[in-house]
Amino acid sequence: MTATGTEVAIALRGVKLQHERFTLGPIQCEIPQGMVTAIVGPNGSGKSTLFRALLGLEPIQAGEADILGQRVGGPQGEAYKSRIGFLAENPLQYENSMTADEKARFASCWYPNWDWERYRKLLRSFDIDGGQKLSKLSKGSRRKIELAVTMAHDPELLLLDEPSSGLDPFAWKAMLEELQRYMEPGNRTLVLATHIMEEIKRLADYILFINRGRILGLYEKDRLLDDWRTIVVQNEAAVKGDAERLQRTPGLQGVTEAGPGVYRLEVNEPEQGEAYCRENGFQVLAVQRMELEDILSCLIRKEEARR
Ligand SMILES: Nc1ncnc2c1ncn2[C@@H]1O[C@H](COP(=O)(O)OP(=O)(O)OP(=O)(O)O)[C@@H](O)[C@H]1O
């Protein structure tokens, strides 16, 4: 899976790792630099595992991963990590007794580019006080602090695992604004795992779909939303062989019978698909753009059928 015409921030070549009951990969894909890529997949599909593998927190058992031009587990060691900001899905329990500022002071030792002014600005935009103990904070408030700490060294690459988990709508909006501002210089890369479709629509340039540890595809978001459509067609004569003919619809991704002679098609070549249906005696009753969750369901159905 490759995004064309852009530099690569993360290159995965045959990356694989195995737990007792779960296998991630082999994954082959290139995540573009200077863009926002959303990793989207059902619970347990391997999004957090992939992040951990990228950070060397779980050993990659086969294949190679390059981040910002450095090999994960390679001879340059962990130097690449100072150029990354990583927000884990869950808070670290051992930090419970720290205040936000103490956590920030700890983090500042690791990052040569740490910027206190930037940290304080982020806290202000999230409307949060850095003197409070992390264990005494609500889930959303703690998330805001973690985001501020993750972004304070102005990393080249931000890896965020469900960043908006626990945020109220105002904080969510502030987070989107901060992430958009972060991307403004044009040379930063943001990769986030999220289940929030609105977040993907507003932020993402690319979407990486994942299911059961395997990549289903890397798509340019605007193109994906433009191309994927549901077409409802009817053949009033309802002749034998209708279903077989529809199987040859250009760009067909899925088809279900919605009634006698009525079919719901999912296609990613909408104009050609519609024309084919008309040429083959079907009346087109409706054409609708597909929502991201429906596209994901369709890709998962296809993948499951192949297994
Ligand atoms: N340390 C581990 N040991 C064994 N299995 C693990 C471990 N960590 C994760 N898993 C398993 O790996 C699979 C993928 O989990 P992961 O947390 O990566 O999924 P996810 O896509 O991030 O899910 P969610 O959307 O629910 O956060 C799950 O089946 C999980 O049970």
From TrEMBL:
<dbReference type="InterPro" id="IPR027417">
    <property type="entry name" value="P-loop_NTPase"/>
</dbReference>
<keyword id="KW-0813">Transport</keyword>
<dbReference type="GO" id="GO:0005524">
    <property type="term" value="F:ATP binding"/>
</dbReference>
<feature type="domain" description="ABC transporter">
    <location>
        <begin position="3"/>
        <end position="237"/>
    </location>
</feature>
<dbReference type="InterPro" id="IPR051782">
    <property type="entry name" value="ABC_Transporter_VariousFunc"/>
</dbReference>
<dbReference type="InterPro" id="IPR003439">
    <property type="entry name" value="ABC_transporter-like_ATP-bd"/>
</dbReference>
<dbReference type="InterPro" id="IPR003593">
    <property type="entry name" value="AAA+_ATPase"/>
</dbReference>
<dbReference type="Pfam" id="PF00005">
    <property type="entry name" value="ABC_tran"/>
</dbReference>
<keyword id="KW-0067">ATP-binding</keyword>
<keyword id="KW-0547">Nucleotide-binding</keyword>
<protein>
    <submittedName>
        <fullName>ABC transporter ATP-binding protein</fullName>
    </submittedName>
</protein>
